[in-house]
Specification:
It is found in: Membrane. The chain has 335 residues and is of the alpha/beta class. It is built from twelve helices and five strands. Helix 4 links the parallel strand 4 and strand 5. Helix 2 runs antiparallel to helix 5, helix 2 runs parallel beside helix 7 and helix 5 runs parallel beside helix 8.
Length: 335
């Protein structure tokens, strides 16, 4: 039977353990702050000569464009999505071969350069105008860095700690008390959830006020996305550590889970030009949905309806990970 008193005892103990570990606390705060500031300084202005052109309502590049050099063509299913990218100077031109239309951003110098390169192909197309100012790389990368910090703090803060408890015999001693596995798991998950959410929110506010990166949407919606993303990753940490005894094996498995997410979820770069199978695989990762939702709100000003799909996926992943983690959880001894 679940007892609030026993749950609160475990919850309080885990929180005190973290706050008294000054090195872990400092690293969780300092690393993402330094990373964001460094990105803001190094990548403050775009520095690339390659053109990027969006193609709408087609999955194949027109044969007339096969000989065009130094230009990357990105395919979009939605005209609105492509125009949003164009308005933020993330692509230089949008072409809709079906409707014989092309879209150019009047504030983009590279857009007019792309027009010059593609002038022969676009001679029979009608021009449409799109307005919007460029976003800095730091505006784009901040959601990725915040999410990456949440991922590492959640996975290792739950998974590694539980395995250490099991290896050192702490779980065995707790199992001899009236504390149930549900009470212990709930306390561990909620403790890490609140710590990670508090640190991430603090990092966001500090960097937003100091660097002034772009935030077009609702702060409350951003907090909801952070909360659901944190919950899914904390639950994944529990699932990984549910029965493991070895800290070395746990570290390897947590790295095996975290590094593909960091590479495939769009933390540092967009996957728009990646093969379709890579983009499909990325949709299986909780970090992808967290980053995509944060960017949609911060950069495009998306509302809850636009990111509802990501929120539902994160919620479903949390439920699945917690259910499986609780099912397979072991104290490390027969109780």
């Amino acid at each position: 039977m679940f007892k609030a008193r026993r749950f609160l005892a475990i919850f309080k103990t885990r929180n005190l353990e973290f706050w008294r570990d000054r090195s872990a606390l400092s690293w969780n705060l300092a690393f993402p702050l330094l990373l964001i500031v460094g990105m803001a300084v190094v990548f403050d202005k775009p520095n690339t000569t390659e053109l990027k052109v969006g193609l709408v309502d087609t999955q194949e590049k027109p044969s007339e464009l096969e000989t065009i050099k130094y230009t990357e063509f990105v395919f979009y299913q939605s005209q609105q999505e492509a125009n949003n990218k164009l308005s933020h100077h993330q692509i230089d031109l949008v072409i809709n071969p079906t409707l014989k239309l092309y879209y150019v951003n009047q504030q983009s110098s590279k857009g007019y350069l792309a027009l010059g390169v593609l002038s022969d192909y676009l001679a029979s197309f009608e021009q449409q105008q799109v307005n919007g100012q460029a976003i800095r790389y730091v505006d784009w990368v901040v959601p990725g860095i915040l999410s990456m910090n949440v991922m590492f703090s959640s996975l290792f803060g739950v998974g590694y700690v539980i395995v250490r408890y099991r290896k050192n015999g702490v779980l065995k001693r707790i199992s001899a008390t009236p504390v149930s596995s549900i009470e212990f798991i709930t306390a561990q998950l909620l403790s890490r959830f609140m710590i990670v959410l508090a640190i991430s929110s603090s990092i966001f506010l500090i960097t937003w006020l100091s660097l002034g990166f772009l935030v077009e949407g609702s702060l409350m919606l951003l907090l909801l996305i952070l909360a659901l993303g944190t919950a899914s990753l904390v639950a994944l940490g529990l699932l990984v550590a549910a029965r493991l005894q070895s800290e070395e094996l746990t570290g390897g498995l947590l790295n095996m889970a975290s590094w593909p997410m960091m590479l495939l979820s769009g933390v540092w770069f967009s996957l728009e030009g990646a093969p379709q199978w890579v983009q499909s695989a990325a949709q299986l990762l909780p970090l992808t949905h967290m980053i995509d939702a944060l960017r949609a709100v911060m950069i495009d000003g998306a509302g809850i309806q636009e990111v509802a799909w990501h929120l539902m996926i994160l919620t479903l992943m949390t439920i699945v990970f917690v259910t499986l983690g609780a099912k397979f959880f072991s104290w490390g001894s027969n109780r």
